């Protein structure tokens, strides 16, 4: 009896012993906790972080940080109270990203950094353990999930996920969550609480050598028939086929009256296409009865392969989090960062922050969009009127705003490739936005 009682208590404690290693909601004192690198780039190349709720928000008093200058590098890092190693533990990294500017090219990812970090010189070359979050440039739009894996076979130790994970590029806040599960070495990436990619870590990154290799003892038999189709032996070239000329002298042409044979030479009719000419002969193709299908190289277990039971332990010794970004057009906001070993903890934090603000932000954004569209319409009308008064033609292109700027919703954006790499159609549908 006593034994059972103790066990129950033990389980209870296990489920409530979540640790939060880092949490940041960017209150008024945020600058005392974060360091902008002074030795990474020349001062004029470094962009300034604004402390603001943004242009649309759910709570004016709840601010985040925002990139505020175009074509700049942005650096920022903050230390954890105590280091985090996730061996034998889950890892949950979650934060909120909002691209207010209609992001064209820029990063918005976060990095987990180790003890070698010097905050003053933190930048793109600083080693990291995990890099997670949106990265957009032109048609390349993805949510990076990169793990440093010192045991990787190749030169490159920072491993990208093999199939790109989609991202969101609209102008509203989105919650990005990376969950690494220790119990079964698997992962889940969620956007706004919905999974966009999950599975075993081993299969989604090239951590380990492949489990099987083509059997070097076997090769394609010499008599293997590769050709699926063959020329029909019953189809022979008709008699006289090659005698049909491609062109003929034009029978309707007549020698001009003023033709002078002495000066112009003997008159010849111009050549025209021969309607009977069918091109070079080729036999009809029929299925090859000897075709056995493509030869498949038999696989054998790879002697170089071994599993890594600690694949999940990608945070070896995280001591800081940081942003190290390049943005062509500024206006990306970050807020509500949490690093913990418990998904419940992160979900709870999102409830208190992201989800509370979402409705208000969306309503405010929609209102701002309506006003913007109205204003643009009025300005276009004004331009058109002026053009007419001056007797000049007015074209849509003369508008101060491009057509794509006028599109309000993501759905209407035909170039939108956000979900191109999505494997499952249902996922795509479930993320269709109705703004
Ligand atoms: C790993 O375990 C979690 C929690 O039990 C489960 O939701 C997930 O599907 C598992 N992943 C794999 C790849 O088995």
From TrEMBL:
Record carries keyword Chaperone: yes
One GO cellular component term: endoplasmic reticulum lumen
Main location: endoplasmic reticulum
Annotated keywords: Calcium, Chaperone, Disulfide bond, Endoplasmic reticulum, Lectin, Metal-binding, Repeat, Signal, Zinc
Biased composition (Basic and acidic residues): 366-389
Annotated compartments: Endoplasmic reticulum lumen
PROSITE patterns with a match to the protein in the record: CALRETICULIN_1, CALRETICULIN_2
Descriptive protein name: Calreticulin
Organism of derivation: Nannochloropsis salina CCMP1776
